[in-house]
Amino acid sequence: MKKLLMLLMMAVLMLVAVACGSADETDAPEENTGGTETEETTDDTEDSDSSEGTSEELSGSVVVDGSGTVYPLMSVIAEDYMLNGQQGVSVEVSRAGTSAGFQRFLAEGGTDFNDASRAIKEEELELADELGIEVQEFKVALDGLTFVIHPDNDWATELTDEQLISIFKHDGGVTKWSDLDPSFPDDEIKPMGPNENHGTYEFFYEVILEKEDLVDSVNLQQEYSTLVNLVSEDVNGIAFFGFGYYVNNQDQLQAVHVDFGSGPVAPSLDTIDESGDYAPFTRPVFTYLNVDMAKEKPQVLDFAYYVVNNVNKFAGETGFAPLPEEEIQSYIEVLDGLN
After folding, report:
1. Which runs of consecutive H residues, i.e. helices, occur in 63-193?
2. Which member of 49, 61, 271, 332 has the greatest number of CB atoms within 10 A?
3. pLDDT, tens digit (0-9, with 9 covering 90-100), for 36-71
4. pLDDT tens-digit readout, 165-206
5. d(CA 321, CA 244)
6. What CA–CA distances, in Å, run from 151 to 148, 182, 236, 335?
7. pTM of the full predicted structure?
8. 55 CB-near residues (< 8 Å, 6+ apart)
């Protein structure tokens, strides 16, 4: 009887051992399979995120300078990025002006991005080559050069492009409103605009005035807010700058409707287009990326992705016309090539 009981106990122990062994063998492949699936999922995630930047938590800083015209758009994107994109990254956006910004950008240890309200110049590209800096241009929006006057000015609300040019051109033969039209007041015009640090000035001088000198009486300022204040306080003032600064100050200014030959056209998000009704005064605005910085610092490349993916989202609210979607996609492909 004792022998029988011992044999039964040994049989039970052997069955338990076999069962445990089978359980261990079953668990082991599940752990290995889980690891393999995780690696494959990670790879897929990286691929799918390539057009959006990285899902990895980043830190460090991104430095942007340049155009005061582009500043409202870029600063809104930067704020959204730090709030909803990468909270560990600090994005500093300044507005020294396009030309002054390129001086900071095209230097050893320079800025990561330079915003510009005109295309980079040949001499600036040559400097970049000398310094070994690879530059990538991204168009970010379309802007309409806008002429603004005092809200109480009820005579110059509609002008031809030739009349506007004659106000600012050195030999335009216009010093008083009545020089434009005998029915206008016989008061001296106070022309104003941004100074030489700004791409808006260069666009106006090179494209609109075709490199003819500005009138001696023109009041050029560094800050756009100063121009807004000056025009809002002088019924004879008239200034030019980007559409966004007008949009944000409509309570103090009114925009001149421009007749390019087919009737007066008001600058607006609907008319600002390189082939639209406001085309003669429409221009692209840009940001320029230091490609080497993007390759060295993940947060710079990630912010570049964020700008490209979100610029149309914020363009309208900051006074810019958006870009065609195919152009956005072409820029994403450029950034994918830097990964």
Report:
1. 71-80, 98-105, 122-131, 161-168, 177-180
2. 271
3. 333 333 344 344 345 667 778 999 999 999 999 999
4. 999 999 999 999 999 999 999 999 999 999 999 999 999 999
5. 10
6. 9, 21, 10, 45
7. 0.81
8. 45, 49
